[in-house]
Amino acid sequence: MFSLPQLEAFVAVAEELHFGAAAVRLNMTQPPLSRQIQMLEKQLGTQLFGRTSRKVELTPAGVMLLPRARQILDLCIKTDLDVRRVSSGDAGSITVAYTAIAGQSALPQLLKRAAEIMPGVSFVLRELVSTDQMDGLVKGNVDVGLLRPVVARPGIVSRPIMTDRLVVAIPSGSSILGSLPDMNAPLPLVMLDRLPLLMYSTKEARYFHDLVLRLFASAGAHANITQYASQIPALLAFVQAGLGVTLVPASAMASSPPGVEFHEISGSHGIRELNRVDLELAWNEQTANPAVRRMLELIDSTGLDAPAAHVSAQRV
């Protein structure tokens, strides 16, 4: 098989149509250049140049080879650059998993900043609940996860990147608000005592499930659970249908269905500290993907800001 130096020598002579000029272009003397051409012709079993004392010209075989030789050399250069970019994290692919609500808050910010700093990196997006994200990180199906704090797995590293809070979602026009002195006032959690509560699944959404129960307990309210769901959009669909009330992150208001309104919640002293919803960035510490390391450096240097979400009997 012919070699890349042979093709480089051929292209130089073919473009210059002069051995001396081609040798200068390649920063070499003419005898080694002539030997490269001779070896290439021997390898291909055909003459590529017609040579006389006055001129050099391409044979039909040389005319056919020239564009292909250029393509091969261009591909080699591009491959060299691409490999170097991938190894430095400037190119490649990252599989990012995210929860439904993270897809509306942290994910767009992350992708926007990555596109500015890492334009050569492509992203594969997968919406998964937090427990499934952890499984993907362990198995290597996911490079980076945007998830809620869940039980740690060996080798998986995570850190908080965004903080939110829970608000109550109720059907629009609900009689629950009848006893509120101010319709824009926070809704005491005790007012939800024994009302039909639409709850997070204990398996797929344990983090939210336990947080809601802690908030109810702090307010001395009984959680009358009537429906379970693993995703926030499903819980809001239940609310829209008038099947009960639920607590969701304030960032979920951005994509709520019509017929649902939101209120801040209030309760006993300390509820503000208890009502904290964390979103974490997680990755496998053994990742061999340089682009992941580059993205982690990006987030470390810029951070991600939580979106401002203000609730005042907001109807959506």
Descriptive overview:
- With 316 residues, the chain is an alpha/beta fold.
- It is 40% helix and 23% strand.
- The chain has ten helices and 15 strands.
- It has helices spanning 4-16, 19-25, 30-44, 60-88, 106-117, 130-139, 206-219, 232-240, 271-274, 290-302; strands spanning 49-51, 56-58, 92-98, 121-127, 144-147, 156-164, 166-171, 187-188, 196-200, 224-229, 246-249, 260-263, 265-266, 277-284, 314-315.
- The strands form five sheets. The protein has a five-stranded mixed β-sheet, sandwiched between helices.
- α7 links the parallel β9 and β10 (224-229).
- The chain starts with a helix and ends with a strand.
- Mean pLDDT is 86; it is low at 306-316.
Count helical runs.
Answer: 10
Assembly state (oligomeric) = single chain
Query: What's the story with the biggest beta sheet?
Result: 5 strands, mixed
Task: Tell me the number of strands.
Answer: 15
Instruction: Extract low-pLDDT stretches.
Output: 306-316
Helix content: 25-40%
